[in-house]
């Protein structure tokens, strides 16, 4: 039984379709992350769940009950905004208690709730301050406190970390995850940061141009992207998407043929090809391999069933401390490989790289959809 | 060489600065001269004014012209001074300013935070009200006041001023609230606050500067208005500006210039006080929203 269910949702602004046929379901206690580039409609989708924007057609149900047409305050939700949206004229305590005040909760109960929430978020010493006297991280906590105190059925987060500096963002990310493990409340979280999406989510919905590209667990999204957009968007550095030719087939094993500048094309034999790929034998396809699946032979995954090696001309070497990134050129495009930190490679040299073909994915160049 | 040129530069900048100050002081004197003449002559007996030197300080100081202007001078046919008309003006200005400010704030709130289809057209039409000359609305207004039975009453004047000011107050508040973060309104909606609760608890507490601007603007305009006052007032609702005119024009025999001066200052005093008390907010408020802060 899904707890939050969005079915066949459409949202138009006049003639413009912002959201097209969105279908998402999430279980109680789940952490749904809506991710996509700016303008993809993810914040609009969150606002329709909150009831801040009306939907054109479709259905949104929370805990089996349709909320379409209900006022935001009647949906049993709480929201944390990107700008935090703290009331500037009220103290921190006033901000947290405002909703209760409006609902007519008696003063002593309000104080108890403020105390409880401020203990969880460690903002007890800030209760008498105005929002303008707080740092970014403190404002973030107060905004979460205001949401927590409602004890809602669903939390909605609209890019809550995008206004924080890099280090604080990582800390708050962990804090949100810890909070979720503790509260076990269903969360819908909007972000454009794919790392936030991967680390926090139990389910990810990738959106682009108002269309749901893929909906699944972080592992599904990362390892089996539905199309080239998802493959390219999720993961950093991005997946290498290379033009190649598929040769062989009809009994013999398949090979991926990649062009190299100033050298013979590189052929990578595929041991575990499935039927779908066979139909593309002799055709141009897109070969996708993530940087971490393209390593020096010593650093290759020992559990991988299908590894192919090939000599590549290294153009640039970028040591990053924990890893070394190497850039080479295959299939007419730059390719990033992720090597061990102490891998002995130099720019301008030919080096043997190991392709982990277990992790490789293939796309149809026309439809951009994944073949295998 | 560089030290010498620096010296010249410093001397030049002092020289330029001195010229600027001299010019500014001259302009200030020129600008303040009428006020000086009014104050000085309102404190002289009439004889001294007749001797011809308007700029001289009084030889014999007296506040008799002020007392006369306030309570005994001949206004039209009655020797009552400006006092009852001053009260009329206060009774007219305070409700008219309050009404137009509150309605303007509500309009601004709705036009920015509760957008509806055609809201920009409505705003455009209200904006047009700022550019309509007084004279055009005189006859329709008179007709409506007559139909509603408010002709010649203070209530009628309040109504006319409030409606005429609505275009300006709406413009002020709309532009101010345009820069007010909409997320705050949304957060309050999720917290369950109603339309008026959001207005009163979230928007109004942050509207100090623009309220000051609106109040000064409306107070000055309505207090100083002569046309509506002379067109729509009845015997018991004549505002101060019209009474001042009657005072100056109704003297039989000698013109009591000192009383006229005192009366004119009395009429200008409230707007002057409002400016002095809250003028610095005026500039700040006019600038608000220009830079997102």
UniProtKB/TrEMBL annotation, chain A:
It comes from the Bacteria. Keywords: ATP-binding, Nucleotide-binding, Sugar transport, Transport. GO terms for molecular function: ATP binding. Residues 4-234 form the ABC transporter domain. Pfam families: ABC_tran, OB_MalK. Belongs to the ABC transporter superfamily. NCBIfam families: PRK11650.1 (NF008653). This is Multiple sugar transport system ATP-binding protein. The lineage of its organism: Bacteria, Pseudomonadati, Pseudomonadota, Alphaproteobacteria, Hyphomicrobiales.
UniProtKB/TrEMBL annotation, chain B:
It comes from the Bacteria. The keyword Transport applies. SUPFAM superfamilies: MetI-like. It is found in: Cell membrane. It is a multi-pass membrane protein. Its main location: membrane. The chain crosses the membrane at residues 14-33, 85-109, 121-142, 154-177, 198-220, 259-277. Residues 86-278 form the ABC transmembrane type-1 domain. Pfam families: BPD_transp_1 (PF00528). Keywords: Membrane, Transmembrane, Transmembrane helix, Transport. InterPro entries: MetI-like, MetI-like_sf. Belongs to the binding-protein-dependent transport system permease family. PANTHER family: ABC TRANSPORTER PERMEASE PROTEIN, GLUCOSE IMPORT SYSTEM PERMEASE PROTEIN GLCU. This is Glucose/mannose transport system permease protein. It comes from Aminobacter niigataensis.
